[in-house]
């Protein structure tokens, strides 16, 4: 299968224009590369929503803080392109930093509410960088649908709100997290884990699943979250930045599972920051 390479916004728009002329719907899958099975699942789901699938690969500097891993973030474009061909993507958009942020660029998109707390509290400016680059990608391509993984759940909620508030005519679709057989959520940053850390990492989702089951059984969140944080700390996760129970839509804090909720966690294991989340069903009557 042929994978069209689109190095510029002009090439991207021309490709989309040709798709439209053929009567095809277009899906966009924004990524930062270092593609894994989770990204390829996004491509697969995108195919159910549209006849043509474009994947963007852009390691966005504006969503990394000054002491974060922008320079060492894994990059392997040749491998990524091979995986996209196997997955059945139609095109890849590969913009340069200079094309996305030309000299004099001075606009930032910020989303209040859902961007606050959780990762927003520990990564100042991160979600402004995400919202800005995703707004640009959506406006550059104007696809019918854009797909994002639920692993970055707060990010998904920020993007949904941004697209809604700015009337960007693109359907935003969240895709459930893809996991390893032992439960670890797939992430490009898992490559940073040592073998010993990799063995311990699934404890993150195990703690979430235990808390979720007890919340649905009617227990209150406070003691469960405190016990879960202590369990992670004892297992070597340090620091545990947050372990919280939030409203699945608004991300407002919840104490009881009296409506659909989401458990979210961020913790360091060695030098690697891991995040995860799972849905919590309302209390069983």
Topology of this protein?
Elements: E1 4-6, H1 9-21, E2 26-31, H2 37-49, E3 52-57, H3 77-87, E4 91-93, H4 97-100, H5 119-122, H6 126-141, E5 145-149, H7 153-165, E6 171-175, H8 195-200, H9 203-216, H10 221-234, E7 237-247, E8 261-269, E9 272-280
Parallel strand pairs: 1-4, 2-3, 2-5, 3-4, 5-6
Antiparallel strand pairs: 7-8, 8-9
Describe this structure in words.
With 285 residues, the protein is α/β, with parallel strands linked by helices. It has 2 domains: 4-175, Rossmann fold; 188-278, 2-Layer Sandwich (Pantoate--beta-alanine Ligase, Chain: A,domain 2), CATH 3.30.1300. Helices cover 38% and strands 20% of the residues. It contains 10 helices and 9 strands. Helix 7 links the parallel strand 5 (145-149) and strand 6 (171-175). Helix 6 (126-141) crosses helix 7 and helix 9 (203-216) packs antiparallel against helix 10. The longest helix has 16 residues, at 126-141. The mean pLDDT is 97.
Properties at a glance:
9 strands, 2 domains, 3-stranded antiparallel beta sheet, Pantoate--beta-alanine Ligase, Chain: A,domain 2, 10 helices, 38% helix, single chain, 6-stranded parallel beta sheet, 285 residues, alpha/beta, Rossmann fold
What is the N-to-C order of secondary-structure elements (H for helix, E for strand)?
EHEHEHEHHHEHEHHHEEE
Radius of gyration: 19 Å
Kindly identify the CATH topology of the largest domain: Rossmann fold
Low-confidence stretches: none
Sheet with most strands: 6 strands, parallel
Class from helix and strand fractions: alpha/beta
Shape: globular
- Please provide the count of β strands: 9
The main sheet orders its strands as 1-4-3-2-5-6
Helix content: 25-40%
Distance between the termini: 52 Å
CATH homologous superfamily (4th level) name of the largest domain: HUPs
